Amino acid sequence: MNKKLLIMTLGVLLFAAHPAAYALGVSEIKLNSSLNQSLEATVEILFATLEELNSLNVSVSRLSGGTAGMQHWPEVKIELVRVDAGKSYLKLTSKDSVREPVLNLLLELHWATGHIKREYSLLINPQL
């Protein structure tokens, strides 16, 4: 392998591994509550810069689907929790208890340089 090709390959690999090459993302949702309890769930924020977190606006809405009679769908509050440098998550909670076993949510994140829409389906089991 000649030196020029090796240097070009290393340069491409170093650029691809640079943290600035990644964009803000979100993890899978982690459900921490059961049916007939207040909703408590978290979504980790991935690869976010301080500037992205400072300009972040998040909303959640209900998607169609799930079971019939969705009049008991709770109002969901979203809080951005900053743990330390580079680690943050969204905390989703409700004041009212969740009475439907399936919640289909659309999470929308907007920040100064981009946006994400992510669908989540929660299967909420009864408390054991």
Which percent range describes the beta-strand content?
over 45%
Spatial order of the strands in the main sheet? 1-2-5-4
CATH superfamily: Immunoglobulins
What is the CATH architecture assignment?
Sandwich
Helix % is 10-25%
User: Could you say what the CATH topology is called?
Assistant: Immunoglobulin-like
- The CATH class name reads Mainly Beta
| Low-pLDDT segments, ≥5 res | none
Estimate nothing, just give the exact number of structural domains. 1
Description of the molecule:
The protein is an alpha+beta fold. The protein has one domain (about 25-125): Immunoglobulins (Immunoglobulin-like), CATH 2.60.40. Helix content is about 15%, strand content about 50%. It is built from two helices and seven strands, in the order H-E-E-H-E-E-E-E-E. A hairpin with a 2-residue loop joins strand 4 (about 75-85) and strand 5 (about 85-95). The mean pLDDT is about 85.
Question: How are the elements arranged and paired?
Answer:
Layout: H1 3-17, E1 25-31, E2 38-46, H2 50-54, E3 57-62, E4 76-84, E5 87-97, E6 102-111, E7 114-123
Antiparallel strand pairs: 1-2, 2-5, 3-6, 4-5, 6-7
Notable traits:
single chain, 128 residues, alpha+beta, Immunoglobulin-like, 4-stranded antiparallel sheet, 2 helices, 48% strand, elongated
Sum this structure up briefly.
The protein has helices at residues 3-17, 50-54, and strands at 25-31, 38-46, 57-62, 76-84, 87-97, 102-111, 114-123. It is of the alpha+beta class.
